[in-house]
Input
Amino acid sequence: MSREPIDSLNNPNNLDPHFPTDADSDDLFIDEILIVDDAPDNLRVLSAILARRGFKVRKALGGSSAIASAQANPPNLILLDVRMPEMDGYAVCQVLKDDPLTSQIPIIFISALNDVSDKLRAFNMGGVDYIIKPFQEAEVLARVETQIRLQKLQQKLIQRNHELLDSNRELEQFAYAVSHDLQQPLQNMMGFAKLLLLKHQSSLDETSLEYLDGILESGRRSQHLIQDLLSYAQVQYQNQSLETVDCTLILETVLENLKGVRVTFLVEKLGWRRPRTIY
Output
């Protein structure tokens, strides 16, 4: 099968001496790239470019061997030629994208086909980029390194999302445990206050009755708070619904909860403005 020439890069000894080497990219030298092309010369040139940059390179001369290699040990990225006998690059890409083990591997197509329809087909098949032959060393490296960096950022994002989920689960467990443990002493406190009112209400002065009423009211608010914490701990397991919220009621509740605390002067200093209702 006749092949399109790549360019002057067919001689690996002519690689650009001014282009950065693997010594300049310590974070890239462990990444592995699978090159798929049925032309040995093309494989040799691309391998020389990437190896010089510090990448670990694997080669496949056809679609079947490429699929077997990727499934046996998924690489970080695949450079995939489009026009190959028996199984073209589009078919190879389809098989890899249908396999959960290899579906997330970035695939860069390489081809002399320059029509928009060819490029669109490559992207629709799941390719992340498209390099047109003949190409330059700098272009290949720039496109490869961009996809490698994007892949690493995506992996970090997935890892941090997992860490965030773990932290949320720990927070929910903590909130549930603390809320549950607070209920018993709170019930005891309110129970003793009720007993004092029941047995000694007639003999207590007005100030003492106010104190007991304050204890019971604070206890009821604390019970509501504990119940809210318990609900929050289970929020991800409950059906969520959106409701209209009146900010005025929220502010009034906050001020009521802060009775006796010297912060209400802030509202007085700033002046009362009825907040708007939000959704």
About this structure: The chain has eight helices and five strands. The longest helix spans residues 137-200.
